[in-house]
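Good morning N.,

You mentioned wanting to compare the apo and holo forms, so I went ahead and generated the holo version with coenzyme A. This is what I fed in:
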Amino acid sequence: MLIRPAAEADLPAVKAIYDQQVLTGTATFDLEPPPVDYWRARLTSTEPGDHLLVAVEDDTADHGVLGYAYSAAYRTRPAYSRTREISVYLAAEAVGRGLGRSLYDELLARLAADGVHTVLAVIATPNPASEALHRACGFERVGLLPEVGHKFGRWIDTAFWALVLEPWQQTSGSGRIPG
Ligand SMILES: CC(C)(COP(=O)(O)OP(=O)(O)OC[C@H]1O[C@@H](n2cnc3c(N)ncnc32)[C@H](O)[C@@H]1OP(=O)(O)O)[C@@H](O)C(=O)NCCC(=O)NCCS
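and this is what came out, ligand included:
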């Protein structure tokens, strides 16, 4: 198993993994599968802190994508530029094998190297696997938005989870701003 940046050839598999959750799950509030261009925009973004990573079984095969994780702007106003929102989705047959953790470990390392300060995740509740993954990676639940989603005939809450990558900066008072 390998974690690497996604390539154009991975996009149909990434889309298929997400589309399955769109149509059957509440982890995402999309109601219709987005077009492949939605994923291509994540792939081609040149903004610092934007990544689309895939976990692949065998890098020589073109059908081996088991899951993906991405980071993107939380909000576009410039003062948010060192905050990123992240997410992760696996194929149904790939859950529970540590792939979510492997994808996030690689993604968080890249975000730290980019100088990202705060990482956010928005988790529709309940989602025990996602909550456990984020907790294991050091995230804390910092807020709940009640009944903001409506899918499959019911109201769904979302929880905000946050990880500050540079806690030293808050206590050091040095004012250092990395690159
Ligand atoms: C959420 C998801 C990515 C987790 O990935 P995963 O590879 O199954 O998780 P891992 O095997 O890396 O486990 C990470 C941690 O979560 C725990 N965990 C995983 N699944 C769990 C579950 N169903 N219940 C409780 N804990 C769970 C593991 O024990 C591990 O904790 P540890 O490090 O303290 O031992 C995966 O379940 C998934 O793709 N779900 C559908 C899409 C989704 O909900 N995405 C998140 C959107 S916010």
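DSSP finds five helices and seven strands in the chain.

Happy to go through it together on a call whenever suits you.

Best,
F.
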